[in-house]
From TrEMBL:
The lineage of its organism: Eukaryota, Metazoa, Ecdysozoa, Arthropoda, Crustacea. Residues 1-36 are annotated as: Disordered. It comes from the Eukaryota. This is Uncharacterized protein.
Amino acid sequence: RERERERERERERERERERERERERERERERERERERERILVQNKNCVHNYWCF
């Protein structure tokens, strides 16, 4: 019975780490999209024929 609870806690910690990695990947994708938007903004500002670029 004691070992059973132990394994249960172990699985719980495992799921917790899994959720943590998932949130980490989510933040990574968010930063990626941020950089992409930044890059596009900079390109647009650098564009001479502005009105064609929007």
